[in-house]
Amino acid sequence: MNFTKTLIVAAMLVLATAGQSLAELKVVTTISDLARIAEAVGGDDVEVSTLCPGPRDPHYLPAKPSLSRKLAKADLLCYNGLELEIGWLSLLLDKARNPRIKPGGQGDMDCSNALEHILDVPDGNVDRSMGDIHALGNPHYTLNPENAVLVARAMSRRMGELDPQNEADYTERAEVFAREVTTRLPHWHDQLAEARSKSIIIYHQHWNYFTHWQGLNVVGEIENRPGIAPSPRHVKGIIDRGNDLDGVIVIAAQWDHLEVAREVAERIGVPLTILPGYSGAQEGTDDYFAFIDRLCTRVAEAAPPAVKE
Ligand SMILES: [Zn+2]
C-alpha cells in the first residue's frame, strides 16, 4: 500500500468511527406501545418508527411496501411476539432483506421474551385454521405497565449491546421509566377501587393483562374464540349473564365489531365503553402513560357507585 492509499484508508476509518458515534440507532417497532417504550429508553440516541399506527388493529395489518422500506434501514426491530404480528411481519421481513433484524440477527428482538407470565396459554392443541389468533397465549401484555417495565429493561440491554457507547444512558432511562410507573401505580390502583366490585364483559381478550393487573372481574367475552365473530347463541348467553348481574361494564376497542358490542351493552342496559387498544388509538393517548391513564379513567367512569333499586 502506498502512502496516499494509506492516508485515504486512515481518513475513511476516522470518518467511519465518527459516523458510528454520531449515528442514531434506527429502531422499528411493530406496535405503538413498543415505540413509546423504545423512545423512553433510547432518548436522543435512537430514531424510532412504528409499523402499525395506534388506531390500527395490529392483528391485521396490510403488508405495504413502505413498511418493508422502513425495515430495510432498521438496526433493531422490537416486535410484540406471541403471534400478534403473524399475519404480516414475516412477509415484510422477507421483502426488507435486512440480515441485521432477521430472526437470529443481533437486531431481532421479540419483546415477549422479557415477560415473566403469559396469560391465557391454551391447554391443548389450538386449531389456527379455525381462526384462533392467540395460539401461544395472550399477546396484549403491554396493557400492564409492569410488563412495560420488563420490556423497557430488556430494550435497554439490547440497545446497549448494539451501541455500547451509550449503554449507561439506556440503562438509566429504563430505570427512569420504571420509577415513573412505580410513582403512578397508587393513583391507578385507587382510580379503579369501585370498578373492582363490578362485572366486566369484554369483546376480545385484548384487556386481560389490564384487568388481571388491576384485579378486575371479567365475567364474559363476547368473542367466544379470539379473532372469530361470535355466534348469535354465544352473544345471547353473554347478554343473559349480564342481565343476571348488577354493575356490568361492557368494554370494546374501537376496531372490534362494535355493532355486536353495542347490542350486548344495550340489551344489558349499560353504555358501551370503547377504549383505545394501544397508545395513540384515541386522541390524547399518544404517550404511553396517557394511554394507561385513559384506560383507568374510562373504566372508573363506567363504574358508578352501586345504587339499590
Ligand atoms: Zn388479540
Task: Write a concise synopsis of the structure shown.
43% of the residues lie in helices and 12% in strands. With 309 residues, it is α/β, with parallel strands linked by helices.
List the helices and strands and how they pair.
Layout: H1 3-22, E1 25-29, H2 32-42, E2 46-50, H3 65-72, E3 76-79, H4 89-96, E4 108-110, H5 145-162, H6 167-191, E5 199-202, H7 208-214, E6 217-221, H8 232-243, E7 248-253, H9 258-268, E8 272-275, H10 288-301
Parallel strand pairs: 1-2, 1-3, 3-4, 5-6, 5-7, 7-8
Helix pairs in contact: 2-5, 2-6, 3-4, 5-6, 8-9
The protein binds zinc ion.
Could you walk me through the main structural features you see in this protein, from its secondary elements to its overall organization?
This protein has 309 residues and is an alpha/beta fold. The protein has two domains: 3-183, Nitrogenase molybdenum iron protein domain (Rossmann fold); 192-301, Nitrogenase molybdenum iron protein domain (Rossmann fold). 43% of the residues lie in helices and 12% in strands. The protein has ten helices and eight strands. It has helices at 3-22, 32-42, 65-72, 89-96, 145-162, 167-191, 208-214, 232-243, 258-268, 288-301, and strands spanning 25-29, 46-50, 76-79, 108-110, 199-202, 217-221, 248-253, 272-275. The strands form two sheets. The protein has a four-stranded parallel β-sheet with strand order 2-1-3-4, with helices on one face. Strands 6-5-7-8 form a four-stranded parallel β-sheet, sandwiched between helices. Strand 7, helix 9 and strand 8 form a beta-alpha-beta unit. Helix 3 (65-72) crosses helix 4 and helix 8 (232-243) runs parallel beside helix 9 (258-268). The longest helix is centred in the middle third of the chain and has 25 residues, at 167-191. The N and C termini lie far apart (94 Å). 42% of the residues are buried. It binds zinc ion. Zinc ion binds at residues 59, 133-134, 139-140, 204-206, 226.
